[in-house]
Amino acid sequence: MKNEQYPPNRWHALFFLLLANFLNILDVTIVNVAIPRIYHDMEISHSQAQWISIIYLISFAACLLPFGKLGDMYGKVRLFKMGLIAFVVTSLICAMSPNIEILMFSRFFQGLASAMMVPQVLAIAVSMFPVDEKTKMFGYVGIVG
User: Fold this and answer.
1) CB atoms closer than 10 angstroms to residue 62
2) Structural domain total, the chain
3) Cβ–Cβ under 8 Å, residues 56 and 27
4) Is residue 1 part of a domain?
5) Which among 77, 81, 92, 88 has a CA at the least distance from the CA of 127?
6) pLDDT by residue (tens digit) across 86-111?
7) Can you give the residue range of the structural domain that contains 38?
8) Which is nearest to 118 in space by CA: 55, 71, 53, 51?
9) 118 belongs to a structural domain
C-alpha cells in the first residue's frame, strides 16, 4: 500500500496514543511513591496500603485480554476513547477519595479503564502505519514502555 492510504497525521496520533499508554505506567509508579503519604494521611493498615497497588494490577491484568478482544469486535478507537475517559474520571475520584473504601473502589475501576485503553494503543498504531514505517513506530512504543 502507498503511504497516501494512511492517515497523514499518524505521527501526531501516535504521540497521543503513547501519551495515554504512558499514563498507565505512570499511574502504577506514582501510586507506589505516594503510598507512604496515603498510609499516614488515611491512617490505614499496612495491608490496606499494599492493596492500593494490588487491586489496580489485578483488575488491569484480569481484563487486558478480554478488552483486547472486545476492541477487535466493537472497534479499537471506540474502546480506547471509552477507556481513556473512564481512566481520567477514575483518576479524579482516586485523587479526591476521602477514605480507603472509595480509594480501593476507584483504583479497581481505574485498573479496568486502563485495561480497556492499553491494548487498543498498539492495535490502533499498527493499523495507522505502512510497513516501511512500522520499525520506527515500534521503536517509539518501546521507548515509552
Assistant:
1) 12
2) 1
3) yes
4) no
5) 77
6) 999 999 999 999 999 999 999 999 99
7) 10-144
8) 71
9) yes
Identity of residue 72: D
pLDDT category of residue 6 using cuts at 50, 70 and 90:
confident
Mean predicted lDDT score pLDDT of the chain: 91
User: What is the residue whose three cell numbers read 499514563?
Assistant: 23
Q: Which three cell numbers stand for residue 87?
A: 481512566
Lookup: cell for 99: 477514605
C-alpha cell at position 79? 474502546
Share of the chain above pLDDT 70, in %: 97
What is the predicted pLDDT for the residue at 4? 66
Grid coordinates representing 141 are: 512504543
Whether 5 is covered by a domain: the verdict is: no
Buried (b) or exposed (e) across 121-135, using 16+ Cβ within 10 A?
A: bbbbbeebbeeeeee
Q: Does any domain span residue 2?
A: no
Amino acid at 14: L
* Three cell numbers written together for 54: 494490588
Q: Does residue 125 contact residue 17 with C-beta atoms inside 8 Å?
A: yes
